[in-house]
Design goal:
By secondary structure, this protein is mostly beta strands. 8% of the residues lie in helices and 41% in strands. The strands form six sheets. A five-stranded antiparallel beta sheet has the order 15-16-17-18-19. Strands 1-2-3-6 form a four-stranded antiparallel beta sheet, with no helix packed on it. The protein has a four-stranded antiparallel beta sheet with strand order 7-8-9-10, with no helix packed on it. A hairpin with a 7-residue loop joins strand 1 (3-8) and strand 2 (16-21).
């Protein structure tokens, strides 16, 4: 089947890659293998494959760790399940939750948890991004961000501990995760941890009857405006889904933002890139996340790297 998602293992050696397919299959390769059982000419076979879902596996993410071989993995599929797997035994998942049409899954660095975005057709005005605990302490799911449109992609910063999501309505949202020793449910400043970086507006300048469901007609008759939101403004209140934009289904989804990625390179860890249906990529430097604790951590890492070089 078609490959829909890839995940590179952030662990010792960085030698493992997981892939998910439209057939429901999930496979894992060890790119450092020299086993004749896995090598066939210039081709390499996966060391493990299994049917993870009854439908297409939309997203897959390997749990980062200190071991040479990955131990845990999370998947989400069109069968409306997201599942957490122990790679020592994939006969049955360690956790299986029935939600909505999953659009993305990501392991959270430093957490025994993962983030899941999904589109719930029964709660169109209250689609959510949630954090699910993997069972080390609890197995609860915590809603952390509400939207009025489908979340197309998400990414996690390993340096500033923040989750970024993009929606079909053209929004870029950032959530700063709380410390490990604090519960998401009892966090009093949860609202202050959420912000909308920008919104996308489509100004329709239609003087005659045209079919705006086509890309050419929409691009010729509409103006796209990106509205950057001040981080510390009362206008930028992400606490309620009612303040979120709705996707305009009457025209081509020109405003839709379909991809987002953090720069996880040291020194450029505040840069966040997003791109969408319009073919434009926007890059933001999120200086508000450059806190004293982040600066202290970066300084310690740089000093440790200098010692290793010497």
């Amino acid at each position: 089947g078609q490959c829909l998602s890839l995940s590179w293992y952030r662990g010792m050696g960085h030698n493992h890659i997981a892939a998910s397919f439209s057939s429901g299959l999930v496979s894992i390769w060890d790119i450092s293998t020299t086993s004749p059982l896995l090598m066939e000419g210039s081709s390499m076979m996966p060391w493990h494959s299994w049917m993870a879902h009854m439908g297409s596996v939309i997203s897959v993410s390997l749990c980062p760790g200190g071991e040479e071989r990955p131990r845990y993995l999370i998947t989400g599929g069109t069968d409306r399940f997201f599942k957490i797997w122990d790679l020592m035994d994939t006969m049955v998942p360690t956790q299986e939750v029935y939600r909505g049409l999953v659009s993305g899954v990501r392991w959270l660095p430093g957490w025994s948890a993962a983030s899941v975005t999904y589109d719930d057709v029964y709660l169109q005005g209250h689609t959510q991004t949630l954090v699910t605990e993997t069972g080390y302490l609890h197995t609860r799911c915590h809603p952390v961000l509400a939207q009025n449109s489908t979340v197309w992609d998400q990414d996690v910063s390993h340096w500033v501990g923040s989750l970024a999501t993009v929606t079909a309505a053209g929004e870029l949202n950032v959530l700063v995760m709380p410390p490990l020793d604090k519960s998401l449910v009892n966090s009093r400043n949860a609202i202050q941890r959420m912000t909308c970086m920008f919104r996308t507006e489509v100004d329709k300048k239609v003087e005659e009857e045209v079919n705006l469901r086509e890309y050419k007609a929409t691009s010729d008759n509409c103006i796209l405006r990106y509205r950057d939101m001040p981080v510390n403004s009362t206008e930028n209140d992400s606490s309620s889904a009612q303040r979120r934009d709705l996707e305009d289904i009457t025209c081509f989804p020109l405003a839709s933002i379909t991809g987002v990625v953090w720069n996880n390179n040291l020194g450029s860890h505040l840069w966040l890139a997003s791109g969408g249906q319009a073919g434009l990529v926007r890059i933001h430097c999120v200086e508000a996340l450059n806190t004293q604790s982040v600066n202290d951590m970066v300084r310690e890492v740089k000093e440790d790297m200098k010692k290793r070089i010497k």
